[in-house]
Each structure stands twice: as structure tokens, then as C-alpha cells.
Structure prediction request, 553 residues.
Amino acid sequence: MIRDFFRRHTLLLCFEAVLVPLVILLGMQFVWLGHLKKASALAHKAALHNFLESVGTEVQYFYRSGAERALNLPASLFKEGKLDQVAYHWKKKPVEGTRRLFLADFTREQFGNWLVFNEQRNSLESPPASDESLAMILASSPWQLVRFHGLREGTSSLQVDERNPEYRFVLNPIFDESTKVVGVTGMLLDEAYFRDHVLPSTIGRLMPGFFPDSAAGDMQVTVRDRRGDVIYSSGEEDGKGETVTARFPFVFADWTIDLVSARNMPEQLASASFAFNVTLSILLALALLGGVAFAFRAADRAIKLSTMKSDFVSNVSHELRTPLASIRVFAELLRLGRVRSPEKIQEYGEYIEAESRRLSGLINNILDFSRIESGRKTYDFTVSDVGEVVAAVLKSFEIRLAPEGFQIHFQGSGTPLPSVEMDPDAISQAVHNLLDNAVKYSGESKEIAVRLSREDDSVVISVEDHGVGIAGEEQKRIFERFHRVSTGLVHDVKGSGLGLSIVHHIVQAHRGKVTVRSELGKGSTFSIHLPVKRSAPSLGLHGTGESPLRHRA
Ligand code: ADP
Prediction:
């Protein structure tokens, strides 16, 4: 039972075996891409923050290392009165980004002695009376107080004084070995140098590392002073996009630095990549499913065809065996001389003839089918009389139908029918097949009607029965080779499944069409439409209304 189910639904199961994991994989990928989208948005934002942090760190490093180099002087220079060496030191290793270098010596005078470095003269001089000098003295005076009060401060470390944004200082108190402050060295920062050199070079150097390729062009860095005025800007400001802001950590601590991703916000980028990936996955899955469906369809067809072929072999063997058996029985009876009356002898002879005709019809069908399949089927077209062809077929059925009680009503067209260019043998075979089916699938009903008519540019041969009928969905398929309706009453009727496919082929070769109108349980009408030969003369054939041919048992 289960094995049977598996055998019958193998393809469906195989298809599901591919489909289900694929759907699960797609679902998982969707969820995963969703996570990735969130993570990549965060990562992008983090990259923006990291960039600003790095700019701050680099700026800090620049000023800190310069200050340490210039301002870290040994206490001995102050104590031993060798401050003139400082000018030499500062001259030899100038510090970039400073407007002025200076020092305050607390070792000699009680209130300290301030000296500024004169680069031109390469000497330390007393500061002139100016705002700058005042700011310098104010910035370093806390240590002067420490010294004055004899407090012990500790170790030296760089200090920043930016209380007055006009004068930004980095200061370094100098302590002797007994942690007593002996002086202060300091540098006054050059804002213009910071704006014009430090910022552009730092940002320009770091940008490609953080935002490679085109992304760097989408980034806009803006530095603002404490009032919010733009001091520096890379690229044009367009105001949209994701913005992150940071402050400088060491000097210029009251300035802010903004980074705007001008076009591609992290969310936009992540959404775009999400949409792209999902679309790609769906397209791939569709392509895969298409391929699989295609393969399964082909396999399904192959399986169906092979089942049909084996059914065909068994059906044909059965069809051959039945008439052969009757022929043998009747022939034996005749040979043994058991039948004496001339009427009986004639009757048996007719049976044998009718059964042989049936056999010939069947074998003709098989041979024709094989010719059609191999493309060897040829037609001999002549201008012929449809009525005559149909009448001949009906006659051949006469003997066969006699014992079965069938009535075939022939109805010719009321008007003369035009000539048709056709292969009479092929058309009679097609009509034969339709009649054969009408008989086979008539069930209890024994009424069959054959009609000839004219419809537009065609002559129509219709065969109508009142038998089992054909369900709507089957009607398209019955013209396929080997196809047999496998349900209902038809089940018991034997056949090869070739008859209608041959009819279809023959009619197509005549540039005509074969149609079916059928209702389950009520009967079917098959119609062959043959195109009328243009400007052909009328053959004057017309039917005489009801049943010129009537067969009865
Ligand atoms: P078969 O040898 O099985 O009759 P055909 O190709 O002639 O093969 O017909 C295909 C199928 O179409 C048949 O098996 C039958 O199910 C259905 N069919 C054909 N003609 C009729 C009809 N007149 N009434 C009902 N079913 C028909």
C-alpha cells in the first residue's frame, strides 16, 4: 500500500524533496540577511565613529609628540642657568603648528622670569607687552603659584590651556628631582596651521583606509568652532545622510568634527544590499525550481509514456486475440462440417470477414502510427467526394454492427457539397476510427448519427453517439497518442489509444481540424472539418435527410 503510494507519487515526492529544503533555505537566508542588514548598518555607523576617533587620535598624536619633543627640557637647565641652550634646542628641532615657544623660569626671580623664543635671532627674549604675552603668563602662572607657596606637585605632564580660544597653549611644567617645579615650557598653537595643514592631511590620509573606493567620495567631513562656524569642510555640504559628531580629544577640544555620508546612509546601504541579496536568492531559487520542474516534467512524461506503451502492448494483444479467437472458432466449426445450413455457413463466413476487417483496421492503425512517428506517412491527395468515402465506411460497418443492434443514422447536407482535396483512404480510416469509437463507447445506447454538412469554408463530417461521454479535462488529451480515459465506464473497453491520435494527424495533414463536443454520460460528437478546395466545382452530392443507411440487427 505505502510502496504503491511511493511508486505512484515518486516524482511529486522528489519535487517536494527539493522544494521543501529550498523553501527552508530561502527562509533561513531571509532571516540571516535581515540580521546582516541590521549588523551592517551598525557596522557602517561604527566605521563612521571610528573614523572620527582616529582623526582625533592622529591630531592628538601630532601635537603631543611635537610638544613632548620641544617642551620636555631637563630641570638642570633651569637650575644651572643654562637656558640659552634651550634656544639652540628649539632652533634645531622646530615644532610645526606653533606660533610661539616660551618658558617661565621660577628658579631665579620670586615671581618668575618669562622668556619667548625668537626664531630669527635664535635667542630667548623677554616677552613684549602684548595680549599674547599676558595670555602666556596667565596660562603658566598656576605653577608659579605652586612654586611660590613651596608646594610639591609631582611629575611633569602636558597640560592644555584653551580658556582663551585666541591663545591656545600646550604647557609642560618641569620638576626637579625633589618634585619641585622649576619652570614651565609652553607652546602657543597656530590655528591656521591646524586648519590648513593638520586637518586636511590627517583626514585625507585616513579616509581611503576607512572608506575605500567610491565610498570615500560620498563622505563629507566638517569641522566647526565653538560658535558652530565651519572651519574646515571636505566636499560640498548637502545636508542629507547619516551624521556622526565627535570632539577633538587633546587640543581644539571646543571644536567639533562631523562626518556625513552624503549619499548612502548606512541604513540605505544595508537596505539596498538586503534587497539585492534577497532578489538574487529568489531569482536563483526560481531558476533552480524552473530547472527542477522542467526535469521532473520531462521525467514524468517519460514515465507516463512508458506506462502508456506497456498498456498499449497489453491492450493491442487483447484486441488482436479476441477477433482471432472468434475467427478460429468459426473456422473450426466450418472445417469440421458441423454447420450444414447454407444460411449459417454464410453467416459464419460474414463473421470471419468482419472480424478480419477489424483486425486489418487495427493493424492499419498500428502501421500508420509507426509511419507517422517515423515521419514516413505519405498522403495521396485527389479531389474527391466526401459523401462517397463516408458511405463506403458505413457500409463496411454494416456487417460488423448487424449482430450488435446498432442503428447508424446518416444525414447528408441539404445542399450540394463542394469537392475536397483529400486522401480518400486516409479520410476513410479517420471516419472508421471515429465510428469504431462511437460503437465502443456507446454503452447501453445503440444510436449513432453520422452527418455531412458545410460550415463556412469547410466540409464537416460528424459522428455522434449517446454513450459514456468524455469529461471536460480529458477532452484535450484524448488526441494524444496512447492516451486513454482510465476512469468510469470506459475502463472495460479495450483499445490501443492510437485511434484519435491518427485521426488528428490525418486531419492536420489535410489542413483541417478535428473537434469534440461531449458531456459525461450523455454522449459525444466528433467532427472532422476539411477545408474546401477553392474554386472547386460542386460534385452535386447531397444527403436525402434522414437515414439512407440504417443498420439493425
Ligand atoms: P482507443 O483505442 O482507446 O479507443 P482512441 O485514441 O481512439 O483510443 O481514443 C482515446 C480515448 O478517448 C479512448 O480511450 C476513450 O477514453 C476516449 N474516447 C474516444 N472516443 C470516444 C467516444 N466516442 N466516447 C467516449 N469516449 C471516447
Notes: The longest strand covers residues 167-175.
